[in-house]
Amino acid sequence: MNWNAISFDWNHVRAFLATVEEGSLSAAARATGQTQPTLGRQVAALEEAIGVTLFERVGRSLTLTTSGAQLVDHVRAMGEAANRISLAASGQSQSIEGLVRISASDVLSAYQLPPVIAQLRDRAPGIEVEVVSSNAISDLLRRDADIALRHIRPEQPELIARKLADSDAYLYATPDYLARVGNPKVVDDLKAANFIGYGAPDEMLPHFVAMGLPLTRDNIRYHSDSGVVGWHMVRQGLGIGVMSEHVAALTPDIVRVMPGLPPVSFPTWLVSHRELITSSRIRLVFDHLAKMLG
Amino acid sequence: MNWNAISFDWNHVRAFLATVEEGSLSAAARATGQTQPTLGRQVAALEEAIGVTLFERVGRSLTLTTSGAQLVDHVRAMGEAANRISLAASGQSQSIEGLVRISASDVLSAYQLPPVIAQLRDRAPGIEVEVVSSNAISDLLRRDADIALRHIRPEQPELIARKLADSDAYLYATPDYLARVGNPKVVDDLKAANFIGYGAPDEMLPHFVAMGLPLTRDNIRYHSDSGVVGWHMVRQGLGIGVMSEHVAALTPDIVRVMPGLPPVSFPTWLVSHRELITSSRIRLVFDHLAKMLG
DNA sequence: TCCAATTCATGCATTTATGTATAGGTGATC
DNA sequence: GATCACCTATACATAAATGCATGAATTGGA
């Protein structure tokens, strides 16, 4: 190995990568927990060391030079290798004490996870649990969480997934609200009802249509990014919402809309990283979640 | 990107890599131009940062732990990415001044390269040339050289190779030595002659046999790793040696053995790295070598 | 068994890098 | 066009890493 060729400061490469990814020295400083002068000096030092001008200093912002752009792919590869080192190192941990981060949708996090974690506390009191309540998908690859609960099967080969039991979802509302819309008996009776959307309304509508409901965009008057907020709208009598029967069973004063309507079945996947699952701490939480939710 | 996961000191990863590759902290320090205490502290800091004991300190030497061994692949990948950054950065250099390192066999380096470099000096006086005279093959991938002259076609896809003219090699000796072995006229007359081997004798013998010479291992009494040293043995009348006609033509007082014997033809390849050849300085030297030696 | 060579660990002075505070400049918005 | 928000660059005091010198321990060979 010719060590001289790679004798530039590797931390400066990370500074360059962070600056490219975050868009500015200041943003990179915020993201990495360093300061803007430090990042600026590190990038300048890297330019000096490898003899390539990476950024064009024009006005308030930096733009990549063409030379710099041709290095970015290799720099990203270096960052990904660093990430794999971090993953593998975490996977080597055989300590039964320490942090495990679980990512799940906010509904799962709020209604189903707490009792499961309570049982885990009795079984492994040394484990610290952080619930990353997020409806975004890309948590595991970004290393924001160690274990994720998802409703779609992950495709990445570096992830391992275990399918839990399928759940059934039904339409729910308050008796009060149902009376207000005339106690619907057939799907056509729902044409005048309000439906609660989780996420963007355009995203939710196809699911309702797939259930055989004759709805249009106008039926979704109230919506929220948060499933918990949406469910609270249902509980306040603002409209009809979809919910898994497990969560609905935990909610008093809520009734099923048209009990004859067939349910929507959806899967739940327990996901982790191939290299992380070798950690006995993460493995223990993974198996506990599989047993309790499966 | 979760920057927190890769917030360990990346230079410490290089220290770990160097220690694994070189076998000890002291050897790594010598190889990387740092000191042994620095390397030791860096590896210890990395262990602390990622929570993995990398080395077992037993006696005077360190041995990888199983945990450490499982990180090595990822660490190597990071080093290779760093190497590609270095390559790409060198390739971005559009400066016509600076160092270009040429790797070639010692015979080529000593007899054929100097006049070519003299012409290059007149054409591009700002270019500094280092001739890495080595019979080892793996120079370009180790980044010991920017351009290499080889007699076998390189197979790696990241290398680019241009074939130069084929050369003819003949047997040579001093008239004095030929008289001593009875001025051989047919190949069977060579059975009692001494042949000079370049490299290991077992490696050289098959080439002589392929030329149709009825030789055994006993015919190779004098040999050297260095082709230049071997050729000087021929010039001193120690035996018969193979040499390209170009080099032999530069050597006075040497005659061809049995002029009727057909030559051995061998190719010469000019090789560089795909990412390096984009450097105008390296490109210029590459093209000059191709023109002068082709 | 002893000696020489080589290894890793530690104390200390010096060099180097970092953060804080601040100045200077640019682009978007009202 | 003035203001605001945001960016980068620089000076200086402090914190951190490095190299040197040295010590302690182990291996291999005479």
From TrEMBL, chains A, B:
Q: Which UniProt keywords apply?
A: DNA-binding, Transcription, Transcription regulation
Limits of the HTH lysR-type domain: 8-65
Pfam families (UniProt xref)? HTH_1, LysR_substrate
Which PROSITE patterns does this one have?
A: HTH_LYSR
In terms of InterPro entries, this protein maps to: LysR-type_TF_proteobact-type, LysR_HTH_N, LysR_subst-bd, WH-like_DNA-bd_sf, WH_DNA-bd_sf
Q: Which GO terms label this protein's molecular function in UniProt?
A: DNA-binding transcription factor activity; sequence-specific DNA binding
One GO term under biological process is: DNA-templated transcription
Top-level taxon of origin? Bacteria
The record's annotation in SUPFAM superfamilies points to: Periplasmic binding protein-like II, Winged helix' DNA-binding domain
Give the signal peptide range.
none
Could you tell me which PANTHER family the record lists for this protein? HTH-TYPE TRANSCRIPTIONAL REGULATOR (PTHR30537), TRANSCRIPTIONAL REGULATORY PROTEIN (PTHR30537:SF3)
Q: Please state which protein family the record places this protein in.
A: Belongs to the LysR transcriptional regulatory family.
Recorded protein name is: Transcriptional regulator, LysR family
Can you name the source organism?
Litoreibacter ascidiaceicola
